[in-house]
Specification:
Number of helices: 15
Largest sheet: 6 strands, parallel
CATH architecture of the largest domain: Alpha-Beta Horseshoe
CATH class of the largest domain: Alpha Beta
Structural class: alpha/beta
Number of domains: 3
Helix content: 25-40%
Number of strands: 19
CATH superfamily of the largest domain: tm_1862 like domain
Amino acid sequence: MVRKPTVAISHLGCEKNRVDTEHMLGLLVKAGYQVDANEELADYVIVNTCSFIEDARRESVRTLVELAEADKKIVIAGCLAQHFQSELLDEIPEAVALVGTGDYHRIVNVIERAEAGERIKAVSSEPTYIADETVPRYRTTNEGVAYVRVAEGCNYRCAFCIIPHLRGDQRSRPIESIVAEAHQLAAEGVQELVLISQITTNYGIDIYGKPKLAELLRALGNVDVPWIRMHYAYPTGLTPEVIEAIRETPNVLPYLDLPLQHSHPEILRAMNRPWQGRVNDDIIENLKAALPNAVLRTTFIVGFPGETDAHFEHLKAFVKRHEFDHVGVFTFSAETGTPAATLPNQVEPTVMHQRREDLMLTQQEISFRRNQAQIGQVVDVLIEQEHPGQGECIGRSARFAPDVDGLVYVKGAPSLAQIVPVRIDGADTYDLFGSVVSNNAAALTKTPARVSL
């Protein structure tokens, strides 16, 4: 029998990219390929790249160069392959193939053709594919959490964003498909499902004619998973129906990830955001009134072309006023091919970085106060790492999403991928510190889960 080559995958970028990586791994394993985490031992290394902003491209290119210098056969997959499909094969001779964002399901065929001596460009001009629950998947997250992609692509055309060019227009999966995958993951012992797409609140509009997020959440309420979390919820899509579904579905966490990007109407209009400058105090206050126990996370861009000191001060005041639980701040990245790259009044990099630091310092004071308020409470924590020799472990409470928010450092030795009650004894700006408590003690001191967030 001819030995099949060994394949390693280097994953870069966002959780959408991670799901693509997991499907490629699953397809390769099903086809009989040996998959090794050690790139040095692999015959082929697939690099699933990110090309969203300049820093991500630099990381992708740096990884490719290092592998090329190690004389590896490289398959360039993902956003960089989609973005620069005309140049990469010429510029990186060690690359044996390109695989676009809508072509990862062709990975077995790509490796087979590469083995036959062919140099392959498997990049669809317009990505249209999205995997469903029937496509093999080998998860790369810890055993307690899994990402579920409900849709891919985006129909909006924000002035700074290249995602529609890299990922195509929105294409949603049917509710039945998503629920079937959720049941599969629950059977594997997953405790938390994170719903992802470019705009989760627009889920279903392309196949049902209108958004169906509320219906999806209610259907997922029948899945035996304690926590279901949403990412990328545009505030204008959090309709009364969606809010009601969050309130009435016990395993759906009241965690709202709102990619606001700015607060000033003039900047939002220049960004061509879907709400065209209508994000204001009322929208946030209405959300807080509808879900008073909600955890609010958001992201902002500073240094967008034309942003003045007054615009930035408006944003800073907005952050102070609403006291979000978690905030990510990014400096503007001028992406070739986007309208914002050629706008007048580009902001100097030094000014952008100073504004980012200023806004982050503002948010740190808020985050510290919010974490301090957790001291003395008993909260549920999903255990994700353990250090038996030290008698401690690390996990997350429902307030913290994986990879982007804080952690909970726990004294005690509960099992991995279990949700346990923890008394919070200390807190800093980003993380919490506590001890496992007995179930009886927890029952006496703990606030109901959907109130203690």
